[in-house]
Automatic annotation (TrEMBL):
Record-stated family: Belongs to the HAD-like hydrolase superfamily. CbbY/CbbZ/Gph/YieH family.
Protein name: Beta-phosphoglucomutase
Pfam families tied to this protein: HAD_2 (PF13419)
PANTHER family assigned: 6-PHOSPHOGLUCONATE PHOSPHATASE (PTHR46193), HEXITOL PHOSPHATASE B (PTHR46193:SF18)
Cofactor: Mg(2+)
Length: 219
């Protein structure tokens, strides 16, 4: 009895969402755009390029392709500076144990992230080797809520979407999992992630035998 377990990175495995927020806020400020926490919520799971497009759209600003590229680079430089000190202690509560339990049960594990920084981040956290497959922003062309990233992951693991479980903290990611026909588990606020099949604030809030529950669960 097996399923493909697919994890988003930012906001599920590690709380980088707060660093993305800081970096985008500085970027927006440099363009004289006010950037709120509600807007940031809508950027979770959204690729770097699409995030900048949205910020410009919300701020009613247009920039040349050169400035656009420069702003993208600037955002990533700031972000990389902010996450410089990430290590094993930054793995969100319960995640490491959950991954190890999956390993012990010989369940296939994949990463499905929009981030182009996913591999170095997993290395910093010391958990890269736990993943059988990594699909990230360097592999996909269509951003969440398009299900490409998750379909690619379950495909590489050799599983059907119906036999896949996705862990997501973003609305776009939950929608992507649902569109793919996968079981969607939201991590965060129930009122924001209400489209998910189930929502937990943290992995530590899941029932003790949750992996077995998921293994016998149908979409
Ligand atoms: C994740 C985050 C987004 C981020 C995107 C791209 O989906 O939730 O906030 O914009 O990855 O990340 P990157 O590291 O490539 O800028
Ligand atoms: Mg996320």
């Amino acid at each position: 009895n097996k399923k493909a377990f697919i994890f988003d990175l930012d906001g599920v495995i590690v709380d980088t969402a707060k660093f993305h927020f800081v970096a985008w806020q500085r970027l927006a400020a440099s363009l004289d755009i006010n950037f709120t926490e509600e807007e940031n919520e809508q950027l979770k799971g959204v690729s770097r390029v699409n995030s900048l497009k949205k910020i410009l759209e919300w701020g009613n600003k247009e920039v040349s392709p050169e400035v656009f590229q420069a702003k993208m680079d600037q955002k990533n430089e700031e972000y990389l500076e902010l996450i410089k000190t990430l290590d094993v202690n930054d793995i969100l509560p319960g995640v490491h144990d959950f991954l190890l339990e999956l390993k012990a049960k010989e369940q296939p594990i994949a990463l499905g992230s929009a981030s182009k920084n996913a591999r170095p981040i997993l290395e910093k956290l010391g958990i890269k080797d736990l993943f059988d497959v990594i699909v990230d922003g360097t592999n996909v062309t269509k951003a969440k809520p398009d299900p490409e990233v998750f379909l690619n992951a379950c495909d590489q693991l050799g599983y059907n979407p119906q036999a896949s479980v996705v862990f997501e903290d973003s609305v776009a990611g939950v929608q992507a999992a649902n569109t793919a026909g996968m079981i969607s588990i939201g991590l965060g606020d129930q009122s924001i992630l209400n489209e998910a099949d189930e929502v937990f604030a943290h992995f530590t809030d899941m029932p003790q035998d949750y992996i077995n529950i998921l293994l016998s669960k149908n979409k």
